[in-house]
């Protein structure tokens, strides 16, 4: 079975089983963004603030999120962002999810151009192991 961290990040992919342990074994920093209770952009930005362990100075907008994910001072080398409850979020908030996906995928591409790896991983409630 091919391990997600063996491959170059490519879009939003399914998170591997035992994601935390697997990421640690591959020396990939892992941050979890819980989308379970997100209903609007403000709540989404707060989920990223919390999940990425950002300071209160985080701008809470799409440009600020992109900047954080592409800033080598924030995250260098290898980062995986786990989007917890992604499919449910996407069904309930299609427009907001499409905007988020665009920013995340642009950040993934920019990171790759700078020689850094940014995995975007979807993990659902029933397989989250919480």
Description:
The protein is an alpha/beta fold. The protein has one domain: Barnase, Chain D, CATH 3.30.370. It contains 5 helices and 4 strands; from the N terminus they run βαβααβααβ. It has helices at 19-25, 41-51, 62-70, 86-92, 94-113, and strands spanning 12-14, 29-34, 78-84, 117-123. A 4-stranded parallel sheet has the order 1-4-3-2, with helices on both faces. It is globular.
Per-chain topology:
Blueprint: E1 12-14, H1 19-25, E2 29-34, H2 41-51, H3 62-70, E3 78-84, H4 86-92, H5 94-113, E4 117-123
Parallel strand pairs: 1-4, 2-3, 3-4
Helix pairs in contact: 3-5, 4-5
The Rg value, from CA coordinates, equals: 14 Å
**Order of SSEs:** EHEHHEHHE
What fraction of residues sit in β-strands? Answer: 15-25%
Structural category is alpha/beta
Structural domain tally: 1
CATH architecture: 2-Layer Sandwich
Number of helices: 5
**Main β-sheet: number of strands, strand sense, barrel status?**
4 strands, parallel
Mean pLDDT: 92
Strand arrangement across the biggest beta sheet: 1-4-3-2
Spell out the CATH superfamily: Barstar-like
Q: Based on DSSP secondary structure assignment, what is the total number of beta strands?
A: 4
Task: Report, as a whole number of angstroms, the end-to-end distance.
Answer: 24 Å
Question: What oligomerization state is this entry in?
Answer: single chain
Helical percentage: 40-55%
Query: Which regions are unreliable across 5 or more consecutive residues at pLDDT < 50?
Result: none
Family: Belongs to the barstar family.
Organism: Deinococcus xinjiangensis
Domain Barstar (barnase inhibitor): 30-121
Protein name: Barstar (barnase inhibitor) domain-containing protein
